[in-house]
Design a protein that fits this description.
The complex is a heterodimer of chains A (about 270) and B (about 110). In chain A, strands 1-3-2-4-5-6-7 form a 7-stranded mixed beta sheet, sandwiched between helices. Helix content of chain A is about 35%, strand content about 15%. In chain A, α9 links the parallel β6 and β7. In chain A, about 45% of the residues are buried. Chain A is α/β, with parallel strands linked by helices. Chain B has about 110 residues and is α+β, with helices and mostly antiparallel strands. Chain B contains 5 helices and 4 strands. Chain B starts with 13 loop residues before the first helix and ends in a 5-residue tail after the last strand. In chain B, β1 and β2 form a beta hairpin. The chains are: A alpha/beta (about 270), B alpha+beta (about 110). Chains A and B meet through α5 and α6 of A and α5 and β3 of B.
């Protein structure tokens, strides 16, 4: 049986006695997403990267549909990893759905964590009464139906079939995505768990320092949602980035790094 | 001289016809390619688009230039764009999609653009 660290393809780098920063990717990608921000933190932090089970190079055989039918399954993996590595005062940086997974990990083992950084958080994607999540119920139903029918072709594994030239694997390489490979069956359930989640009630109880890092023009986590998260968590810090889109650590790594550092030293 | 052209039409000099085929205008190939071409800035704003894409979306180039590509997509497509396509373009400069559907595509982007 794979160890906890093998299961989540955990990679540790940086300064051994530095403050640990655990980066957790969101739906759709893997730890490669942090590649432009980790070099900066490796200088004076202990950097921990991982792939959520079902994503990237995690152990797919460890995927248990029951365990991962809720974000708590992913949160308990993060707690296990931190314990296995003997970490304390952890800065947990979670992107997108993993901002909420981070909140749940803190809830499960508050003694492990010293700060949470929520990059593009959305505690509930579906609008609900006065609450704006950015998506209607019909939007999300359509998204999940499209995934079930594979209309969006979210599997990236089959690209080499196009090339069909075993003597020249580099041609297939050109058409295969090197990062963020996703098992389509797991991606379907992860999408369901992600986009139907509602973690609003988990926010007010958080008592450690929290940074809400909000992009401009984010279609997955609109600014109004980031401000909602900020208002729900007493004493949290809200930083609006100039960066647009949903993945500032890829599109604006310097701005992202500076904002996290300012929060940690402030 | 009469004959049959490369696609079987009578009354054309086949060599002249073939010559015209081989000298196709690259701009025409771009504009009327059997696929939509578009170039965007890293934030998705369209800066160049071919006629085929305009025909598919029923919009004129002037309406598309400056629009964000992701704003043309369905909700599912937009989520796919933000969680898969855009990150992959940032990391590897290209993104390949499964050929499991008939409309397989690839996308490329220059990080410097």
């Amino acid at each position: 049986m794979a160890t906890v660290l093998e299961r989540n393809c955990v990679r540790v780098s940086g300064v051994t006695d530095g403050r640990p920063v655990v980066f957790v990717h969101g739906f759709g990608c893997d730890q490669a997403m942090w590649r432009f921000v980790t070099p900066d933190f490796e200088v004076d932090h202990r950097v921990v990267l991982l792939d959520l089970v079902g994503s990237g190079n995690s152990d797919l055989s460890a995927y248990d549909p029951d365990k991962y039918s809720s974000l708590r399954g992913y949160a308990s993996d993060i707690v296990e990893i931190c314990r296995e590595l003997g970490l304390a005062d952890v800065v947990l940086v979670g992107h997108s759905v993993s901002a909420m997974i981070g909140a749940l990990a803190w809830k499960e083992a508050p003694e492990l964590f010293g700060a949470l950084v929520m990059v593009g958080p959305n505690p509930r994607y579906i609008d609900d009464g006065d609450y704006v999540g950015g998506f209607s119920r019909t939007d999300i139903a359509g998204l999940l139906d499209a995934l079930d029918a594979n209309h969006l072709g979210w599997s990236t594994q089959m690209a080499p079939v196009i090339m069909g030239n075993p003597d020249h694997p580099e041609l297939a390489e050109e058409l295969t995505n090197s990062f963020c490979r996703t098992d389509p069956d797991i991606a379907r359930q992860f999408a369901r768990v992600t986009f139907l989640s509602d973690n609003r009630a988990d926010l007010p109880g958080i008592t450690i320092p929290v940074l809400v890092l909000q992009c401009s023009e984010d279609a997955i986590a609109p600014e109004v949602v980031g401000r909602y998260v900020h208002e729900c968590i007493p004493g949290s810090t809200f930083t609006l980035l100039v960066a647009t889109g949903h993945v500032p650590h890829l599109s604006a790594p310097e701005e992202t790094t500076a904002a996290i550092r300012a929060f940690l030293t402030g | 001289m009469s004959g049959t052209d490369p696609i079987g039409n009578p009354g054309q000099d086949p060599r002249a016809q073939l010559g015209r085929l081989l000298e196709e205008d690259p701009a025409d190939l771009y504009e009327n390619a059997p696929m939509g071409y578009l170039s965007t800035l890293p934030d998705g704003r369209i800066v160049k688009v071919n006629r085929t894409f305009c025909a598919w979306t029923g919009r004129r180039p002037g309406e598309l230039i400056g629009t964000r590509f992701q704003d043309l997509l369905s909700v599912g497509g937009r989520v796919f764009h933000e969680t898969h396509l855009a990150p992959l373009l940032r990391m590897q400069g290209r993104c390949a999609r499964s050929p499991s559907t008939s409309s397989a595509w690839t996308a490329r982007c220059c990080r410097a653009c």
